[in-house]
Known about the structure:
Layout: E1 6-10, E2 13-16, H1 37-56, E3 59-60, E4 69-74, E5 83-88, E6 95-96, H2 103-119
Antiparallel strand pairs: 1-2, 3-6, 4-5
Helix pairs in contact: 1-2
Amino acid sequence: MRVPRPFNFFDGVLLMELVTDAHGDAxxxxxxxxxxxxxxxxxxxxxxxxxxxxxxxxxxxxDLSEFNILLAHIPGEGDQPGVDEPVIIDLPQAVDAxxxxxxxxxxxxxxxxxxDFLGNLPRVAPDRxxxxxxxxxxxxxxxxxxxxHGSF
Length: 152
């Protein structure tokens, strides 16, 4: 999962990496960026994959939305252009997926927030981001590289 890299912790203060855009300025929040439909679908797939990875690690973010995701620029190698990738921030309220009675509700809210924001952008078909079944009936343990396809 891409999060800001911590550098130091002293006397209750955590010093972390500055997540930047292509110009070296502070990276914008997802809410502050205009996306094409293709970009919205790609970012949705990436972020749902990150939610799956967090869940496999036993963590639910608990407040994941377009306000807690930055769009960082990752420089390309050689002559290759760079890419913008989401970076998840604001994790203090993250909860133990197995030990918190509200974890399932929080997980569904996190996924719904991503769907609602990225699916409601102009020209993005919201039904492409809507899962067919939100009540999971796991038949096996999820793995970090599993695709999140909305059916169980």
